[in-house]
Known about the structure:
Blueprint: H1 3-12, E1 18-22, H2 29-44, E2 48-53, E3 71-72, H3 77-86, E4 89-93, H4 104-110, E5 114-119, E6 130-133, H5 140-150, H6 159-172, H7 183-194, H8 199-207, H9 212-224, E7 226-228, E8 233-238, H10 240-245, H11 257-261, E9 268-275, E10 280-287, H12 293-300, E11 304-305, E12 309-314, H13 318-328, H14 333-337
The structure holds guanosine-5'-monophosphate (5GP) and manganese (II) ion.
Amino acid sequence: MTSAEITQIKVLLSTSKKIIIVPHKNPDGDAMGSTLALYHYLKSANHDAIVMAPNDYPHFLKWLPGDETVLKYEAETERCNTLLQDADIIFTLDFNALHRVGQMGDGIGDSQAIKIMIDHHQQPDDYAKFVFSDVSMSSTCEMVYLFIQMLGDENKVTADIATCLYTGIMTDTGSFRFSSTTSQTHEIVGKLIASGANNSDIHNAIYDTNSYAKLQLLGCALKNLKVIPELRTAYITLSQDELNQFDFKKGDTEGFVNYGLSLDNIIFAAIFIEHKKDNIIKISLRSKGDFSVNEFSRQYFEGGGHTNAAGGKSDLSLEETVEKFITILPDHKKELVS
Ligand code: 5GP
Ligand code: MN
């Protein structure tokens, strides 16, 4: 983002505006943390700001400050469409293309509001007037901190803003261990703690509030884990029946895919989860090093994301999807075993 653009945004925000802030569908910690942090920042600058999520999100994010104000497009579509049409500014956070918000994308595309994208995913689409896109960033939350800093308001980071931003940085970096974590990330995290983010409480609220059923579902997933050592790949399946058996709730499978990657010598991990209601298999892919799961997902599974973390889907059955995956893998042997 150029300094001329920052100046334009400062002018734009110098008078009170109607602002909608949008995370991607099935929002994660970074999506909700970044949108709610921006919400608190804009509210304190006297804007009429609202976070509008395409759909609901997991229980472990529901304690975030400001959670009770979030509108869900899926539940209140008509009201949300009116608000989108009336907005002066729409911020889109933690996604790179309007199809990532599902049906809500039409409402955003049709709105005359000035659009501002803040995101760290690869290959951003060209729908926003202002684009702050940086694929080297650990998280959109790190970028929202930088955005507030660029606007000259670093001293306006309250405990609520800090709590939201810390949450997103922590979740998107796997608690500061992924290679996207830089010294800058740690510097910002340090400032967030100084501004009132309670790191220990936040970690506890996100990671230590599991239900017994969720841990049993994890046990089932780990039982289903398959390893292809010669291709340094591991994958997990979960059928709809298995999800039902363990009382699956949104967000319960978050992080399961990483267990495959924790195996010695494995650099590519996948999880295939059957969603009978939508008739799709939802796929999460993770890698270590140069093997791009973003490219892999774009090529075979209608998805995308980052080099080392991506998602996608398949319209085939669970068995057929796994079959397709196993058949494709040898074509990538060079990249996987190099
Ligand atoms: P997850 O596997 O946790 O759902 O997603 C991993 C990363 O890939 C996230 O950054 C997410 O935004 C992105 N991602 C997940 N599903 C999709 C998808 O269907 N399309 C695209 N373009 N990105 C996705
Ligand atoms: Mn993110």
